[in-house]
Amino acid sequence: MRVAVVGATGFQGGAVARLLVDRGxxxxxxxxxxxxxxPPLPGAEFVAGGLADEGAVGRLFEGATHAVVSxxxxxxxERVRRYASNLARAARAAGVRRLVFNANTRLPQEPTGxxxxxxxxxxxxxxxxxxxxxxxxxxxxxxxxxxSPWNGPALVDEGVLAYPLPAAAPVxxxxxxxxxxxxxxxxARDGVEGGVFDIGGAATLTGTDLAEAFGYALGRPVRYAxxxxxxxxxxxxxxLGPDTAEGVTGLYRYLAAGSDPLLLAGDDGMSxxxxxxxxxxxEEWAAEQPWQVWSNHPEDQPA
Length: 303
Known about the structure:
Blueprint: E1 2-6, H1 11-22, E2 26-31, E3 44-48, H2 54-61, E4 66-70, H3 77-94, E5 98-102, H4 115-128, E6 134-137, H5 152-158, E7 160-163, H6 176-188, E8 196-197, H7 207-218, E9 223-226, H8 229-240, H9 242-256, H10 270-275, H11 282-287
Parallel strand pairs: 1-2, 1-4, 2-3, 4-5, 5-6, 6-8, 7-9
Organism: Streptomyces laurentii
Pfam families: NmrA
Domain NmrA-like: 2-234
């Protein structure tokens, strides 16, 4: 496959791009950064420009047989519509055989007014209108979000796993690697065109369940602490800026309010079975991470 990967310089798209390259496929992506400032992505070809540049998007798709789209963390409806429209036109013009859209979130059945949901719903509609065979993945929450500066130190040094979801919320946590495997299957597997898959992890876990899984992996007691969305937003704003932080946190505010408590739960493995993938369990993922990098007391950590 010759795959145009939108978002390959980010975490989710980067995992997809690396898997494609590792399996011998050609990858091309967009970047607005100068060549020397781009993240390392061995084996991938870069096209200069962004999603608002119709010419750059067209060059991204030249010669592509397949495409994967993960939208940037932008939640302004008109910007997202413009990005999606540019992608749809370019994919159609290039004769792309299959396009996989990672919505990066589950979507409530009814409109919510929450930009984190509704801009993704709109992008999906625009891409479907391109006429290019489409597969949509709607993952829940990424395990990799937990390997971060806002909760890593508390987890490693204090045994506290904090995240802005209610403790009782059932979540089918998925890793970036699990997402990449699902995207690859959506690109290559017969019989999935036109499908929408609520892909999730191997099990649905409450906060308490997740803490137990991490405790098993780390060999120590771990307790789950629901993080207030407002505090999460302040931390996120320091890394990504206030607009992006507000957009991302809107999803967590929606869930913290008790709206649609099953939105992030598993689907009894139906999507994984349809795609022929087997996502790792949370304890397996946790056991593989170098948690000691977050410790404020590295001398106390095992070598």
